[in-house]
Specification:
8-stranded antiparallel beta barrel; 1 helix; globular
């Protein structure tokens, strides 16, 4: 193998590695798991500066509509392109704000978790992409 061919192969592997580690796009609508009130939420996640935020845009299987428009996720920044932290997650069914974490589990799965500022109790859900 020539030196140039080896350099091309190395450069290609280097680029492929970093493209694979690129930040996952978590923007879009996500369906929550069933909450304590028995209903589901639809949260729209969007870029808010250098971070991600998300607001409740709809509810399913519940008449509890007063939280629509509420900011559910705020100020989540990426550690490695697939995990996000540093922000807050609001649990509508408990009316509590948790220190939050997000983790991409696949193209249509997002783990949303959080703990109260004292470190416990903690809770989490796996959300699924909703719609297009």
């Amino acid at each position: 193998m020539t030196r140039i061919a080896a350099q091309v192969i190395f450069a290609s592997a280097f680029v492929a590695f970093f493209l694979g580690a690129a930040q996952a796009d978590i923007s879009g609508k996500w369906k929550t798991q069933k909450g304590k009130n028995g209903g589901y939420g639809i949260v729209e996640v969007y870029s808010c500066g250098a971070a991600y935020c998300g607001k409740l845009v709809d509810v399913l299987e519940t008449d509890n509509r007063e939280s629509i428009g509420k900011l559910i996720i705020r100020d989540m920044t990426s550690k490695n392109g697939k995990s996000f932290s540093g922000g807050k997650v609001y649990a509508v069914d408990e009316k509590k704000t948790y220190r939050g974490k997000l983790k991409v589990l696949g193209p249509s799965k997002l783990k949303v978790s959080g703990c109260l500022p004292i470190g416990f109790p903690c809770r989490g859900q796996v959300w699924t992409r909703y719609g297009n």
